[in-house]
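Researcher: Please predict.
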Amino acid sequence: MDPLWIGAAAMAGAVTSAYLGWSESKEPFNARKFSASLLRGIFSGAAIAIGFNYVEMMQPAYVNVIVAFCLGAGVDVLGNRGAATIAAR
């Protein structure tokens, strides 16, 4: 798969998480806080896209463990933020 799409998906996940965090907070939109999350999303997207190019060089078992860890953390964060956003409304 094209690293550009992988990076874009990672960045979209980070931005979605930031948006859900803001929507559950009930605070007015703060562009400064959101821009910091956006920059972290861009950084993580780039890092993940670059990392996907080197996955073949790693042991497959390590890759599976790292991906499972990151997916578990991401699903937990999005689940918590999504549930809190629904509960806040």
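Model: The radius of gyration is 15 Å.
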